[in-house]
Structure formats: C-alpha cells, structure tokens
C-alpha cells in the first residue's frame, strides 16, 4: 500500500471568508472589536448606525461576513436588489474612508467616498466609489454610488 501524497500546503488552498467573531478586529478597520463596532449594528443590539460613514463601514463589514439581511435592510427601498450575490472567489481585505459630506445626526443625506480592497481569485484589486446615503424611516440607508476607479 502506497503512502498518500502529501496534501497541498496552505498556499494552494483558496482562502475562504475569514471567520469573524465578536472579539476579532473589526473588518472595517476601526480600532475596535467587531462585536463593539459593526457587529452591534448587524445584530441590532447597537441600534442603527448614527452616521452615513458608520453605515458605510457596517455595510462593508456585512459584505465581509456575508450578512445579506443587514445589507438588504440598509438599502433604500427604491434601489434595493432582490438579493445579494456574494462572489465566492472574492475576499475583501480592507476599507479606507477618503471623504465624507454631510451624513451626520443633523443631516438627511450624505456621501462617503471610499476605497475597498479585495483579492479576487488570487489577484489583488480595489474599488473606489462615492456612495450616496439618505434616511429611510429615520435610519441611514445606502441609495447608490458612482464607481470612480
Ligand atoms: Zn466596524
């Protein structure tokens, strides 16, 4: 009986979505554990995101942890898709907020410009977008965005 071939090393295995726990560093990049940062908005224990930027961060983190329900409920009804497709070959690796306009507790609208980095089938890439946010029944929701490179 021949010996089994050695399994391929970790570098040959496609990375899967990282297991994010409440104690993990938040995927959105703020210096806080996930449970105390975006996770509290995903579970609802922290209420709703108070600013457009925090909503943007929490939606990015929802893409990382594949929280479809959160993405749909924070999408404006007029632009909300029926479902969110998570590309199994895509892994989000970081978020940088570059600019915001309005979007605070005192506003009804706001924009957030960001770059989100990813690895797609092993190839690093980035997406830059200026997203528009508005309030729906008092809570911030994502309306749409312009991809800027
Ligand atoms: Zn976060």
Automatic annotation (TrEMBL):
Region (Disordered): 1-22
Species classification: Bacteria, Bacillati, Actinomycetota, Actinomycetes, Kitasatosporales
HAMAP family: UPF0225 (MF_00612)
Family, per entry: Belongs to the UPF0225 family.
Pfam families reported in the protein's UniProt record: YchJ_M-like
Organism: Streptomyces zaomyceticus
Protein name: UPF0225 protein OG814_07610
Highest taxon listed in the record's lineage: Bacteria
Annotated YchJ-like middle NTF2-like domain residues: 51-145
């Amino acid at each position: 009986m021949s010996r089994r071939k050695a399994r391929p090393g970790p570098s040959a295995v496609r990375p899967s979505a990282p297991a994010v726990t409440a104690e993990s560093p938040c995927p959105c990049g703020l210096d806080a554990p996930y449970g105390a940062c975006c996770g509290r908005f995903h579970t609802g224990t922290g209420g709703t995101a108070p600013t457009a930027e925090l909503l943007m961060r929490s939606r990015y983190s929802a893409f990382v942890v594949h929280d479809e329900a959160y993405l749909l409920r924070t999408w404006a009804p007029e632009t909300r898709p029926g479902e969110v497709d998570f590309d199994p070959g895509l892994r989000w690796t970081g978020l940088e907020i570059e600019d915001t306009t309005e979007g605070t507790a005192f506003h009804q609208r706001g924009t957030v410009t960001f770059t989100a980095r990813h690895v797609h089938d092993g190839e690093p890439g980035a997406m830059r977008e200026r997203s528009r946010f508005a309030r729906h029944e008092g809570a911030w929701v994502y309306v749409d965005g312009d991809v800027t490179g």
